[in-house]
Amino acid sequence: MVHLVDINSENWRVPIKVSKEQELYVATSTIILARAYAYRDSRSRAFLIHKDETPVGMVLYHDGESFDAYVFSEIFIDEKFQGKGYGRAATKLVLDNMKKDGKYDKVILCYIEGNDAAKKLYESFGFVETDRDDDEIIMELVL
After folding, report:
1. What tens digit of pLDDT does each residue of 67-100 get?
2. How far apart are CA 4 and CA 120, in angstroms?
3. Is the CB of residue 32 less than 8 Å from the CB of residue 56?
4. E strand or H helix at 118, and its extent?
5. pLDDT per residue over 10-24, tens digit each?
6. 59 vs 96: CA distance, rounded Å
7. How many angstroms separate the CA atoms of 68 and 48, rounded?
């Protein structure tokens, strides 16, 4: 079963990473943790994505007060576990957490142009493109 585990002082060093091909599109776990810290005043939530007891990825989201929305900042699945539906399952769990929290009724995110896997995943949940900023495509979902 896929579930989210809060990142804490005991588990933050889990050696997970994306493939070389995806490094252009996805932040490293170190950058995700730095962003979680940087957005701590915006209720940042960083999780390890687990399949049963095995960490398979990482995800981060936070409040985007200036957007009146949640910001789905980062998600990645370790290179050894890709293509098994873990990203889809984790995305659903994150969106469910946001709905349960109820502070905002929309979610924004962006992905780098060329990351077709991300585009396909986000569109499958109903995200739609709302803007572009250079090579970043900005998407929105109404919860």
Report:
1. 999 999 999 999 999 999 999 999 999 999 999 9
2. 22
3. no
4. helix 116-124
5. 999 998 988 888 888
6. 14
7. 26
